[in-house]
């Protein structure tokens, strides 16, 4: 059954402040009247006035149901959830409620309004509302979970590709500046420069002035090479693995591309 919260029609704010309550308690101590008479005079609930007078109220001056966690505990929990979000770790509403359940059980505290000490969705939204200056509910949690699932191997591979790309870019910066002055056709031109081969590392192709290269005939299938796609004012480099070649023309070779 869907739970739709309906606010009570008479649930208005307090009709008195802490100064009025201090004055009322002083009148009770001085014997200005009975507790019922003073309650009717200042329009303060009799039970509230009795608890304040006896000092048994847990949250004086606070309207509404008392929170399951103390104020310091809620602030510490909100700060830790925000810290987890900064590191890209997933922490959704269900994780928050189950963590509170584990914390209450660990402290041997029982909350009657929680079933098995597990907070509901209403408590979760109330917690976010009380600490909205620090945390909020994100609607793109799938991205957060994906980032949280990144392994160490994926990070290492990323930085290896980044290092290889930066090294190639710094080595070919002078050549790129000289090619900007030439009138290059808008169609993509594929060149193979300084072939990086697992079979033969000493292969060095000879580049012609027009942009089409004549590659050493000793390059074999399975070798790795650097493939250059050049437009009019932009150059993109890829790592290519040669699958097969029918002749010595570079444009007729079958190559797999890997972005760096």
Automatic annotation (TrEMBL):
<dbReference type="InterPro" id="IPR009057">
    <property type="entry name" value="Homeodomain-like_sf"/>
</dbReference>
<dbReference type="GO" id="GO:0005634">
    <property type="term" value="C:nucleus"/>
</dbReference>
<protein>
    <recommendedName>
        <fullName>HTH psq-type domain-containing protein</fullName>
    </recommendedName>
</protein>
